[in-house]
Amino acid sequence: MIKSIVNKVGIIGTGIMATDIAKLFLDNNFLVLIYTRSRNSQDKLIKNMQLKNKSTQSTDCLISNLTFTYDLEQFITTSLIVEAIIEKFNAKTNMLKLLSNLMPKNVCITSNTSSFSINKLARFVRYPERFLGWHFLNPADKIKLVEIIPHST
What we know:
Largest sheet: 7 strands, mixed
Structural class: alpha/beta
Helix content: 25-40%
Strand content: 15-25%
Shape: globular
Number of strands: 7
Strand order of the largest sheet: 3-2-1-4-5-6-7
Radius of gyration: 15 Å
Oligomer: single chain
């Protein structure tokens, strides 16, 4: 069902959770766009993905559906964004404000936070009706369970 609605997934972050979430979508043949701030973070994510890849698909095949960008405006081409950056409130709210000001109304923005209220985070997005908590459990590419948290704003 989701495959017919979502054509490309955007992921904000390059840490362990972002890597696992990216791998989950790549394993299921989605196109994935990842926002990174440095080449070093990009290389580290690819290395971690190579170490974890035990699927039948080769890492090269997975990576062929993966694109990196330093430009948040590129996320306009996605239909779903997963924010998976460091668990710091100011960092998350600043990123959510930036994203929601750049994205058209049809892009769904989610947060993988495990620490902050989705109701509080929803106050920082332009279209709160298109925002929700989407908390993946670790390791996200192996555990077939995700907590979906709506907000009440």
